Amino acid sequence: MTAATDPTPDAPPPTPAGTGSAATTAYQGYRLASHFQPIYSLTHHRAVGHEALLRATSLPTGVPVPPMELFASFEGDDARVSLDRAALLQHLSAYAGRDADEWLFLNVHPRSLAASAGPGIGEIAGALAAHGLRPGQVVIEVLESTLPDDADFDRRIDELRELGCLVSLDDFGAGHSNFDRVFRLRPEIVKLDRSVVVRAEVDPHARRIAAQMVSLLHECGCLVLMEGIETDEGAYTALRCDVDFVQGYHFGRPAPALAGVAGLPALHAAWDRFDRQSASDDRLWQEQMSPYKQSIELASVLLAGGATMDDACARFLSQPGADMCYLLDKQGRQVVANAFRAGLSQHQLENVERFAPLHDTRAARWSRRAYFRGAEASPNIAQVTRPYMTLQGSRMCFTVSIQFDMGGRTLVLCGDASL
Ligand code: G
Ligand code: MN
């Protein structure tokens, strides 16, 4: 979100003067002030920055004006860009003299960056110097949804980078996510929209996808921040998704004073749960997988000894959820007919009309699949994939596999089971 949208209640006002930001700005009938919300690194186990959020009150009445309303009360792009610029300068002056080893995240509307009425690069550099801040302390946040296709904007971003600032893509994943925007902006930090954690908290499949999205963003060279974390479950989810940074009411609300250590107990609690639960989840998964692995191993031994697919795989296929076994050669091609659980047939498995174009697998090569490569990497030791969604999208399944030798021929035996 930009500074313009913050409908949520904050922490109480600062107590004694000196703990909060003394600096405010009088601006066209309003008083502008800054609140700061802490951002924690899960890995470093401490605050690594704060996001500055605009707070305004009407000057004659002292009544708070929500940022949305504030921006709406100014007419025309130029007036709003000027307000955005005043907010930016306000935040810099309120933050002046703070910890040099923390980032200050600033929301800037792309329109402000591209406009001539917006804060120029020289002006930002000057304001930073005047307040004793290094450019490297500043992270410029731009909203994913508002990124313009505009050369002036791109140039301004390049200039900010040259100055030494970092760039962050805000609200990523809120509807119209597009990796194209990541490639174009090359943000050092991507902030995942609150909707990502909300879904991932309650839906294991959404959590796996979020974790993969984080991994993809890491591969793009971005650090990843999960925002809008409000609960224990959200904090635990953030750890499981391997995000770098977290932000949200669970760790600290926006407040006039910096809240460096206030969120640490919540961070500790999330790590405690992660250590406890991920170890026991792993143990449970290994225990559950053990009979499937043993029976696929047994099947490979029986096959090597000359048994038929049906006989060799009978034990595997008698286990809960087990659907079928298939035998692949070194190129990942199927070498004999599949063996099915009693009562299930190739016909039934394939009888999903919408996927009819995929039914014929006679020339199929499965050697790119994780279960094949895993088996190749550790011959004679049964492997198991992570749970994945079947092509039909209707259920989660996993595959166990083993590479073995049959009369001088290297083969991979696989077994699929539904969860
Ligand atoms: O998207 P952006 O990085 O601008 O997020 C900051 C906004 O989100 C601010 O308006 C802030 O008050 C709000 N916010 C911060 N933490 C939370 C949270 O845990 N839950 C919700 N709903 N909003 C939050
Ligand atoms: Mn933001």
General description of the model:
By secondary structure, the chain is an alpha/beta fold. It has two domains: 238 residues, Alpha-Beta Barrel (TIM Barrel), CATH 3.20.20; 130 residues, 2-Layer Sandwich (Beta-Lactamase). Helices cover 37% and strands 22% of the residues. It is built from 13 helices and 16 strands. Helix 10 runs antiparallel to helix 11. The radius of gyration is 28 Å and the shape is elongated. The N terminus is likely disordered. The site of manganese (II) ion has 5 residues, from loops.
Which ranges are low-confidence, i.e. pLDDT below 50, for 5 or more consecutive residues?
Answer: 1-9, 11-21
Largest β sheet strand count, sense and barrel closure: 8 strands, mixed, barrel
**By CATH's scheme, which homologous superfamily of the largest domain applies?**
EAL domain
The average pLDDT value, as a whole number, equals: 89
How many DSSP H or I helices?
13
Q: Assign an overall shape.
A: elongated
CATH architectural designation of the largest domain:
Alpha-Beta Barrel
Tell me the total number of β-strands: 16
Counting structural domains, the number is 2
Q: What is the fold named in CATH at topology level of the largest domain?
A: TIM Barrel
Approximately how much helix is present in the residues? 25-40%
Structural class: alpha/beta
Q: Cofactors and ligands present?
A: guanosine-5'-monophosphate, manganese (II) ion
Beta-strand level of the residues, as a percent range?
Answer: 15-25%
Strand order of the largest sheet: 2-3-5-6-7-8-9-10
Distance separating the two termini: 39 Å
- Series of H and E elements: EEEEHHEHHEHEHEHHEHEHHEEHHEEEE
In angstroms, what is the radius of gyration? 28 Å
